[in-house]
Design goal:
The chain has 282 residues and is α/β, with parallel strands linked by helices. It has one domain: Rossmann fold (3-Layer(aba) Sandwich). The protein is 54% helix and 12% strand. It has twelve helices and seven strands. The protein has helices spanning 4-7, 21-32, 44-56, 71-85, 109-137, 149-152, 158-177, 201-205, 209-220, 225-237, 247-258, 260-272; strands spanning 12-15, 36-41, 60-65, 90-93, 140-145, 183-188, 242-243. A seven-stranded parallel β-sheet has the order 3-2-1-4-5-6-7, with helices on both faces. The longest helix has 29 residues, at 109-137. The structure holds nicotinamide-adenine-dinucleotide. Nicotinamide-adenine-dinucleotide (NAD) binds at residues 16-17, 19-23, 41-42, 66-69, 94-98, 118, 145, 147, 190, 192-193, 195-197, 218, 225. Residues 16-17, 19-23, 41-42, 66-69, 94-98, 118, 145, 147, 190, 192-193, 195-197, 218, 225 line the site of nicotinamide-adenine-dinucleotide (NAD).
Length: 282
């Protein structure tokens, strides 16, 4: 197994949504290994905070405001890293937002659009913009952050599941498509880890069983963004398509592939009995 540094001695990575949660943990993990890290997110002050932490951890930050719903901002970012670093080795499409609720009344159309924009269009823009940059350098790695939700189709999370399943599909497609270009692809399908994703008014007000259970789990789980970041890097080094840091998502996914009807019955049972991720306040 080659380390990322052996594969990419120039050590240049761009991360979206890098000033919180998994994005920040990945930025610091790369920094600790001496990488140049393009720290991108929405808010300049939080980007600066993360960039300072990247520098302190031994990395070389490049600060950039990048709203992932705006294709032209990806193009500007590509221009900037090309100018500053003459290319890029690893693209991390991490920025994401969550939502939960029943299809007919919980999930608003406005929020559907937000989820599709932030979770899906971002990955399309990121890949379309940066694949030519990686190709120019003769190699690269794309790390897309989807979710276990994209594999498991949990109830009352249609918008989140749909966007994350699409990210899994894009990643699997590109894995084969880009082999000839020496570009590898890994997709993160983590289940709940601690981050700020549930920390917004809409999720706090959310009355759905799944929403409340999963969001409570994100707040209380002992799984940290840092441990998911370390696992993510190992998955890239092993050349894996799927990176599943937690066993529960892996077991349920395997069951859903091999015995889809049994999986559906089990999921319905767990949901109706308020068990597993659906337990209130677990
Ligand atoms: N926390 C979990 O349990 C969990 C599980 C599986 C997958 N994920 C995925 O991990 C990724 C990171 O989420 P997190 O849990 O660390 O959450 P987080 O809220 O801590 O971090 C998400 C980051 O994305 C940024 N972001 C949001 N909208 C943006 C936009 N339009 N442009 C640029 N940046 C934007 C936010 O500012 C924030 O810094 C997401 O894609 C999420 O879906 C999270």
């Amino acid at each position: 197994m080659r380390t990322l540094e052996q594969s990419f001695p120039k050590k240049r990575v761009l991360i979206t949504g890098a000033s919180s949660g998994l994005g920040k943990a990945l930025a610091l993990e790369f920094a600790g290994r001496g990488w140049k890290v393009a720290v991108t997110d929405l808010d300049a002050a939080r980007i600066k905070e993360t960039a300072d932490a990247v520098r302190a951890a031994g990395g070389e930050p490049l600060e950039m405001v990048l709203d992932v719903t705006r294709c032209e901002q990806f193009e500007a970012a590509a221009h900037r890293v090309t100018e500053a670093w003459q290319g890029l080795d690893v693209l991390v499409n991490n920025a994401g937002v969550a939502d939960a609720g029943r299809m007919e009344d919980g999930l608003t159309l406005e929020n559907w659009r937000l989820l599709v924009d932030v979770n899906l269009w971002s990955v399309i823009y990121g890949c379309r913009t940066f694949i030519p940059v990686l190709k120019k350098g003769g190699k690269g790695h794309i790390f897309n952050v989807a979710s276990g939700a994209g594999l498991l189709c949990l109830p009352e999370m249609a918008s989140y599941n749909a966007t994350k399943a699409a990210v899994v599909a894009i990643s699997a497609t590109l894995k084969t498509e880009l082999i000839v270009d020496n570009i590898d692809v890994t997709v993160c399908c983590a289940s709940a880890f601690r981050s700020n994703i549930a920390d917004n008014e809409r999720i706090r007000q959310c009355s759905s069983v799944a929403g409340r259970g999963i969001m409570a789990k994100i707040k209380q789980t002992s799984i940290t963004a840092e441990s998911v970041a370390r696992y993510s890097i190992r998955s890239m080094e092993k050349g894996r398509l799927f990176s599943l840091p937690q066993a529960d998502a892996g077991v349920m996914w395997a069951l859903s592939r091999w015995m889809p009807e049994k999986y559906r019955r089990l999921l319905t049972y767990l949901f109706n009995k308020r068990k597993w991720l659906f337990a209130p306040g677990t």
